[in-house]
Design brief:
Layout: E1 6-11, H1 20-29, E2 33-38, H2 48-55, E3 59-60, H3 72-79, E4 82-88, H4 90-98, H5 104-111, E5 115-120, H6 124-128, H7 130-141, E6 145-146, E7 150-153, E8 159-163, H8 167-178, E9 188-193, E10 198-199, E11 205-206, H9 213-224, E12 228-233, E13 242-245, H10 249-260, E14 265-268, E15 275-277, E16 296-298, H11 302-309, E17 315-322, H12 326-337, E18 341-346, E19 358-365, E20 370-377, H13 378-390
Parallel strand pairs: 1-2, 1-4, 2-3, 4-5, 5-6, 9-12, 9-14, 12-13, 14-17, 17-18
Antiparallel strand pairs: 7-8, 10-11, 15-16, 18-19, 19-20
């Protein structure tokens, strides 16, 4: 998806520098060209050899390494489509805000006129220092995107705000800026993901094999294309968009109903349990040598319920996983549920669907027209699903 794009990554002397190795790998996986520039202190935390092996490019360190008759910092700015500085230490942030150019990274920043994303990483007291606060405000006023650090356990042994943001958040923030087609901008899209959990007692539950990968791929893709995404998920994940974590079908129904009120559309990619235990035990059920009988009652049918209350301007997309008679069952389901589209996949195929990184689907609309998505990875499948349903604007 990033073929032809060049990502320039600046790494400073912060403990989280090693995490950027995985960010580089993620961009390379999408076929981006990755260039790396480091401050001298960054090499105390991650090696030049590692960065060159991952990026498949020389790592820029020296201020005046002349290549092709261009100072290195100018050559880097000409090539890059976006400049990510992560982790960014308090010292480097101060230099960036003041325009100090005492190393190759800061000089490159000063000469760079395109998109810049900065992910700070530092001790809590440094992050909260009035000088750092002012420097961050200065950079924001100049149009620089700041991915604020997380709160958690820090390398210095304290607990507070300052830990580098999740690498998936960093990656997605940069990626969305490299994909200009914002055809979903202005649309609030609610997406569900994962398999619901119905408790039997305090330690046991009824569940299914859904990994949530398809729903999360849809949410990531919709966000990249400008949608105001709300992900309602049984799988815990950190994203730059709103994520609501739920467990049971009842929890998911309540969250969906609330968020759908002012939404443009709902994509029900979650595998919702049809049944729940009528009288779950608050304590662990002990074995006594006798059979255990559970009385199950139906859960709310979220897809059917939401489809029945949606207005004429709202869209509801359902998913169905079938092990036989795929198209027949899917067509029956879209009529029964009353949704606008249904995405059907065959779970009898072990190389797609639940827990797999791949999927093969059929999209069916209310007129029972069918569109086939050949086997592909779930991110590409998400692109095709959204493009087919919403139109890419191209």
């Amino acid at each position: 998806m990033l073929t032809g794009k060049t990502v320039l990554i600046g790494i400073t002397g912060a403990i989280a520098a090693y995490k950027i190795c995985e960010v580089i790998r993620m961009f390379k996986k999408e076929n981006a060209n990755v260039k790396v520039v480091v401050t001298p202190n960054a090499l105390n935390f991650v090696t030049k050899t590692t960065l060159e092996a991952l990026s498949q490019n020389p790592v820029a360190i020296e201020q005046f390494n002349i290549q092709e008759y261009k100072p290195e910092h100018i050559a880097l700015t000409d090539e890059a489509d976006i400049f990510l500085i992560a982790p960014a230490s308090a010292n480097t942030i101060a230099k960036l805000a003041l325009g100090i150019c005492d190393n190759l990274l800061t000089s490159t920043f000063c000469a760079y006129k395109k998109q810049v994303v900065i992910a700070p990483c530092m001790n809590t007291n440094m992050w909260e220092n009035p000088a750092t606060v002012k420097n961050i405000q200065t950079l924001k006023k100049r149009g620089i995107d700041i991915i604020e650090p997380e709160t958690g356990f820090l390398a210095c042994g304290t607990n507070g705000k300052g830990r580098l943001a999740d690498i998936n958040v960093i990656y997605e923030t940069v990626k969305i800026k490299l994909i200009p087609n914002q055809y979903l901008k202005g649309k609030k899209i609610v997406i569900t993901a994962g398999g619901t959990v119905e408790e039997i007692d305090s330690v046991r539950y009824i569940g299914n094999y859904s990994s949530g990968k398809m729903g999360i791929a849809l949410a990531d893709t919709a966000y990249r294309h400008g949608a105001d995404v709300v992900l309602i998920s049984t799988v815990e994940t950190q994203k730059n968009y709103k994520v609501i974590n739920v467990k049971s079908a009842e929890d998911m129904y309540s969250a969906v109903k609330k968020e759908f009120e002012n939404a443009h559309s709902l994509i029900m990619a979650a595998a919702v349990s049809d049944y729940k235990v009528k009288n779950k035990s608050l304590q662990k059920i002990k074995k006594d040598g006798n059979p255990l009988t559970l009385e199950l009652i139906e859960n709310p049918d979220i897809l059917k319920e939401i489809s029945s209350i949606k207005n004429k301007n709202q869209i509801v997309i359902g998913f169905c996983a079938e092990s036989q008679n795929l198209l027949e069952n899917a067509k029956e389901k879209i009529i029964k549920k009353g949704c606008d589209f249904i995405c059907a996949n065959d779970i009898s195929k072990k190389d797609i669907g639940f827990s797999s990184n791949y999927n093969e689907l059929y999209i069916i609309d209310k007129e029972l027209n069918t569109y086939h998505i050949e086997k592909t990875d779930k991110l590409n499948a998400a692109e095709e699903i959204l493009g087919k349903i919403y139109g890419t604007g191209k």
